[in-house]
């Protein structure tokens, strides 16, 4: 194949959407609007309510903001393509979208790790919680949770951007790094090694999360009924969020790295979208329904507005 520097990419997965594009557009628009409303509402609530200016809610605020970044980087381009017959994206916009989607996924893992550590300290060493999670430490944890993924993904994007390509068709509905690497005309060993290194570095937080919740479980088993209930209330949303996100991210990794003949392109496309659509939509609902302080503040706001209107 001829070595060409392509300035546009063609997103071929839209071909399987057929005549149902309008229905998918409406569904996507509703989903995106709900994500914006739910996540923004909780972020604003946590920001405005001084009683929620605690480490757990500050971390939650960052998690919800991260999901807004990931959803926006995907949905806007996706909905635009559903309304057109030519599904192309410029090289610069492709790498920009890819960068922010990967920032979302990697930062989400980092913040979930920090939240697991927060719950571990709160349940295993409650008397030292305020001392351990000082304002300075919370700021440092948030900074690292964002800056480390940005640094790692920036290197990955630079490695992919330098590759000469022999094609420009991406079998996805959004830009995917592995799909671009597969289009390269040259040896991609450095990209593969770095990709493996990145995956390994994010396995460490996963191991830490599992360890934290196992320790929490061991403490809960030897605690009183009221303490078990309190631990269950605070840890359940984190666990549900973690399971949803990791399972959907696993679908995307398997779908992008392994080709399975029995799975159609449409199924692969939808499976690869799960980590971008399901967690941002469900997480604010999960936290809003289960965390008692969030429920109280939401109920208080509704009652306040009801009194003002009457």
UniProtKB/TrEMBL annotation:
Q: Which organism is it from?
A: Erpetoichthys calabaricus (Rope fish)
SUPFAM superfamilies the record matches:
Family A G protein-coupled receptor-like
Keywords, A to Z, come to: Cell membrane, Disulfide bond, G-protein coupled receptor, Glycoprotein, Membrane, Olfaction, Receptor, Sensory transduction, Transducer, Transmembrane, Transmembrane helix
State a single Gene Ontology molecular function.
odorant binding
TM ranges:
22-45, 57-76, 141-161, 193-214, 235-254, 266-287
* Keyword Cell membrane in annotation: yes
The record's listing under PROSITE patterns reads:
G_PROTEIN_RECEP_F1_2 (PS50262)
Q: Would you tell me the protein name for this molecule?
A: G-protein coupled receptors family 1 profile domain-containing protein
Q: What are the residue boundaries of the G-protein coupled receptors family 1 profile domain, all occurrences included? A: 38-287
Could you tell me which InterPro entries the record lists for this protein?
A: GPCR1_Superfamily_Member, GPCR_Rhodpsn, GPCR_Rhodpsn_7TM, Olfact_rcpt
């Amino acid at each position: 194949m001829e070595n060409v520097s392509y300035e546009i990419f063609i997103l071929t997965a839209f071909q399987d959407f057929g005549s149902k594009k309008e229905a998918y557009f409406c569904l996507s628009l509703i989903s995106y609007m709900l994500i914006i409303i739910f996540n923004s509402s909780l972020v604003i609530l946590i920001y405005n309510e001084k009683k929620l200016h605690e480490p757990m809610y500050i971390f939650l605020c960052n998690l919800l903001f991260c999901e807004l970044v990931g959803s926006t980087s995907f949905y806007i381009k996706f909905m635009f393509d559903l309304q057109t017959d030519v599904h192309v994206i410029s090289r610069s916009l492709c790498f920009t979208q890819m960068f922010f989607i990967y920032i979302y996924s990697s930062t989400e893992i980092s913040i979930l790790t920090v939240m697991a550590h927060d719950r571990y300290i709160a349940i295993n060493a409650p008397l030292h919680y305020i001392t351990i999670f000082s304002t300075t430490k919370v700021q440092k944890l948030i900074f690292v949770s964002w800056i480390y993924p940005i640094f790692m993904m920036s290197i990955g994007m630079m490695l992919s951007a330098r590759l000469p390509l022999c094609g420009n068709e991406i079998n996805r509905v959004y830009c995917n790094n592995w799909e671009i690497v597969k289009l390269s005309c040259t040896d991609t060993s450095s990209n593969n090694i770095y990709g493996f290194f990145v995956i390994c570095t994010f396995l460490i937080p996963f191991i830490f999360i599992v360890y934290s919740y196992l320790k929490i479980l061991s403490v809960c088993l030897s605690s009183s009924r009221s303490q078990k209930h309190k631990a269950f209330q605070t840890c359940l949303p984190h666990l549900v969020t973690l399971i949803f996100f990791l399972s959907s991210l696993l679908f995307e990794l398997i779908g992008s790295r392994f080709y399975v003949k029995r799975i159609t392109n449409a199924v692969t496309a939808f499976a690869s979208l799960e980590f971008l659509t399901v967690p941002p939509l469900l997480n604010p609902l999960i936290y809003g329904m289960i965390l008692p302080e969030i429920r109280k503040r939401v109920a208080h706001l509704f009652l306040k507005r009801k009194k003002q209107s009457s």
